[in-house]
Amino acid sequence: MLMRWFMICFFCLVLPWSALAATEIEISSPGEQSIPLALTRLLPNKGPESAQISGEFNEVLDADLDLSGLFRFVDPEAFLDDAQRIGLYSIQVDFPQWRLLGSETLIKGTYKIEGDKLTIEARLFDVVNRKLLTGRRYVGEAKDVRRMAHAFADLVLKELTGEEGPFSARIAYISDLSGDKELWLMDVDGKRPIRLTNHRSIVLNPDFSPRGKEILFTSYRANNPDLYRKEIYTGKEAKLSYKQGLNVAGRMSPNGREIALTLSKDGNPEIYLIGTTGRIRKRITDSWGIDSDPSWSPDGSQIAFVSNRQGNPHIFIADTFSGQAARLTTQGKYNATPAWGPKGERIAFTRQSGGQFDIYTINIDGTDERRLTFGPGNSEHPRWSPDGRFIVYSSDKGGNRAIYVMRNDGTGARRLTKLDSDCRHPAWSPRW
Amino acid sequence: MKAMQTLKLVLIALFLCSSLIGCAKSTPQMDQEDVGKSDMSQPSEVKGADEGSMKAEVVPTHDDIAGMERINFDFDQFTLSAEARSILGNNAKYLQANSGTNVVIEGHCDERGSDEYNLALGESRALAAKNYLVSLGISAKRLSVISYGEEKPLSKGTGESVWAQNRRAEFKAIK
Amino acid sequence: MPDGTGDEVGVSALAFVQAFIQQNWALSPYLLDQSRLRDLEAKATLSYAASGEMIRYRINTPSGNQQFDDSLKKAITKSKQLPQPLPKQLDLLVTFNLKEMARGK
Fold first, then answer.
1. CA distance B153 to chain A (A)
2. From CA A278, how far away is CA A272, in angstroms rounded?
3. Which chains touch A (3 or more CB pairs under 8 A)?
4. CATH of domain B63-157+165-173
5. Do C28 and A20 touch (CB under 8 A)?
6. Which of A40, A85, A261, A322 is the 20 to 30 A CA-CA neighbour of A229?
7. % pLDDT > 70, chain C
């Protein structure tokens, strides 16, 4: 309503002038292809000071926002005195100072420590229009500072792009740090890893339920590759599919009611749908060759998978209802591990070329194929972040296999796990 | 109607106020958002997950059989080579001579390629070996298969000689 | 009444104003749907007094994309004062698009 008032005033003032002849020019790209951001450190709001709290919040936020690729960070060395002033109301912020530094956006915040309790208030300002864009107060304990920073990074992306960030989620993966391949869970920046299973066997291939608090995986605990489900918070675990032969690559449907997986109970690996109790509902593929690696389209109507039915392994897309399948990839001699993007338009996969595996994306109609990684080493197991901005994957370019993350255009790659164990099969949880 | 008029007045008042202050949006959002008490509870970590202190314990599931040799495969293949067939011929003789021994055939792959696809490929290798033994007169009831894909390499490392060793089917006695 | 043609203002002054506005325009491709980069375009009229002060502006045809249009408004706000005077008043019809950015993609 207020906007309408402004618009009316605006048109009254401006319209009569617009008929004038003017010189035409064209500006065909922005002078700066990133948003200049000043990220200040949190200031203590009364209460005791803690360089650790402000430092950790700053570090996490900096890393998340940097990964987004949206920003150019204004050098903190150049900050003027407003960076040292608490002022969370836009009338208290000295915007001209920040304009002078070339900044368009500004993050300021405070923290307050009272016993075990930690309160952080963070604000995102539009420097050009001199206004508050968004802000939150987070209440928790000191150990929650990283989660508060991730949550605020998600909020910053939502405010600026309309789409929330994926930083508050988790990444499940397989690591042999304990001596066996077990299921682990970590923050999306690789911090705070915890082990979730103790099967002392081989655990493989995790996938999250759509609501995020449950993980499917395969384990050899009972001397057969069986499919398990595990509730993350309670730790409760159950065998879900344990037919003779393979019970692998379980992927829960977007509505959470069915699981696509590879079964070889009849001697040849085929993709089936089972219910959440493990009962077979439907067989999706029927070919002489290997059919494996299902990945659901976001609307559940289609399933991408790998098949060697035409000779070499290629990616195919099957209709969930009819089972009718068409080949997606045409290049290369070994294409595998399809991962359907959350926006529905693109599929990530791996291809072997020149003896090494790299990650590619392709439109679901087979057009616009793009290679995202270029070695060294093998890059495999691509999985999307829930917003489709990022791809998490495993690579052995650092020697041991580790988990990496990059933007969906292949830029910004960084390693998340340490090189002290073999890590693979990452899966990004839905928003936590 | 009356409500509408009141609303209009309120809106005009609001408009005036906001133009005095500057910008309506400059009032800070004091959204208090608890990061979620229930969410603050940590995912349940397994007991004794103390990194480093725990010793890995390899539990052998099956025993190697001295009289049965493993066979190897080409990359992304599960067809039996002439050499593999001759080894399987010897293995069949051993099984005929030791009719009390039941066998699990393990299919393995090298580390390259999709793990899930390799699980399927490993099984195809084990099944190829099993079917050939059955064709040589061994009862299918004595033979079971399991695929480990690329999860249990015979030797670690990279390079064709390592990979070639790892692309294999092994024969283990069921206890 | 000035007719505002480029010739009268001078090519170098025009090129200077164009570069100045472009330099003030910041937009990350990660804000946008990559496949739509080619389609985004907006037109604005800007009027500078000889002093270098922007006396009026209007976005005549916005792109319809909020992130794109917001970035233009910011660029215009940042361009309200030229760092040096002009030979005379300048009326501009500026077309903003991402042709050069899309080419690299």
1. 12
2. 11
3. B, C
4. 3.30.1330.60
5. no
6. A322
7. 87
A120/C contact by beta carbon, under 8 A? no
Which domains does chain A show, CATH number per domain?
Answer: 33-161 (3.40.50.10070), 170-428 (2.120.10.30)
Q: What phi, psi does B99 have (nearest 5°)? A: -70, -10
Residues 108-137 of B with CB under 8 A from A: 112-117, 119-121, 123-124, 127
Is B117 within 8 Å of A194 when comparing Cβ atoms? no
Helix (H, G, I), strand (E, B) or coil at A59: helix
Which mean pLDDT values do the consecutive 10-residue runs of chain A (432 residues) have?
A: 52 46 89 95 91 96 97 94 85 91 95 93 94 94 94 96 94 96 97 96 95 91 95 93 95 96 92 95 92 96 96 95 95 95 96 91 96 93 97 92 96 96 95 82
Given this model, what pLDDT does residue C9 score? 62
Q: Which chain C residues have a beta carbon less than 8 Å from that of A104? A: 26, 74
Give kind and range of the element (H or E) at residue C46.
strand C41-48
Structure tokens at A402: 């580790």
Strands (E), A253-366: 258-263, 270-275, 280-283, 291-296, 302-307, 314-319, 325-327, 335-340, 346-353, 356-363
Contact C26 A35 (CB under 8 A): yes
Integer Cα distance of A242 and A227 in angstroms: 6
CA distance B41 to chain A (A): 8
CB-nearest partner of B29 from A132, A170, A352: A132
pLDDT at A14: 46
Question: Which pLDDT does position A3 carry in this prediction?
Answer: 54
Beta strands (DSSP E) in A147-299 are 170-175, 182-187, 194-195, 203-208, 214-219, 226-231, 237-241, 247-252, 258-263, 270-275, 280-283, 291-296
Largest CA distance in chain A: 82
pLDDT attached to residue C8? 54
Pick the residue of B73, B115, B118 with the most A CBs within 10 A to test the interface with A by mutation.
B115
pLDDT digits 0-9 by tens, B87-137:
999 999 999 999 999 999 999 999 887 888 999 999 999 999 999 999 999
How would you classify the pairing of strands B103-108 and B143-149?
parallel
Which among A419, A371, A411, A412 has a CA at the least distance from the CA of A395?
A419
The CATH class for the domain spanning C6-25+41-103 reads alpha beta
- For residue B56, the chain A residues in CB contact (below 8 A) are 178-180, 200
**pLDDT tens digit sequence for C27-56:** 998 888 777 788 899 999 999 999 999 999
SS3 content of chain B, % helix, strand, coil (to 5): 40, 15, 45
Higher per-residue confidence, B23 vs A423: A423
Closest CA to A121 of A95, A92, A86, A90: A86
Domain range annotation of chain C = 6-25+41-103
Chains in contact with chain C (at least 3 beta-carbon pairs closer than 8 A): A
Domain-wise residue ranges, chain B: 63-157+165-173
Q: ipTM value of the model?
A: 0.89
